[in-house]
Write a structure and sequence with these properties.
Residues 1-148 are annotated as: Disordered. Residues 13-34, 52-79, 103-123 have a biased composition (Basic residues). Residues 35-51 have a biased composition (Basic and acidic residues). The protein is mostly helical and 148 residues long. The chain has a domain at 24-112. It is 68% helix and 0% strand. The protein has helices at residues 23-86, 101-113, 124-147. The protein is elongated and about 130 Å long. The N and C termini lie far apart (134 Å).
């Protein structure tokens, strides 16, 4: 039978002796920890940046959506205005004496907008004529060569 040692903290051969880690190793570990902490910070910074970017994108999209809605509303209002001009059975306001100068101005702008645009004279037309002339010349020269 094995005898248990009665003395506390007696030598136990199975227990491994605690070795003091050399300072060199400690320094290395410290350096590594610093590096890890730095990386964590960087990662956090990147996450923050990503959040900011996402938020900015969301804001921009929201602005776009609002702009579109505004445009739609304007269009709708314009339609109402147009209908009131076309069907004077129940006009929203007196078309001859509008209540506000803005509405009057709107009418003027509408007239401007519906003005037919001047067609730009294309140069391609002249070019095609030149090409035709050139082709005719070439054909004449070919015929002359054939006759010879």
């Amino acid at each position: 039978m094995k005898q248990k040692s009665s003395i506390k903290g007696a030598f136990n051969p199975k227990k491994k002796k605690k070795r003091r880690t050399p300072t060199n190793q400690k320094k290395k570990r410290r350096k590594f920890r610093k590096k890890e902490i730095g990386e964590k910070r960087e990662r956090r910074g990147r996450k923050e940046e990503e959040k900011r970017r996402r938020r900015r994108r969301k804001k921009k999209e929201e602005e776009k959506r609002k702009k579109k809605e505004r445009k739609k509303k304007k269009k709708r209002n314009n339609k109402k205005y147009y209908n009131s001009r076309v069907n004077p059975t129940r006009p929203t306001y007196d078309p001859i004496r509008p209540s506000s100068p803005r509405k009057n101005n709107k009418n003027k702008n509408k007239k401007k907008r519906n003005k037919p645009k001047k067609k730009k004279r294309s140069r391609s037309n002249g070019l095609t004529q030149q090409k035709k002339k050139r082709k005719e010349k070439e054909e004449k020269e070919k015929e002359k060569r054939r006759k010879k």
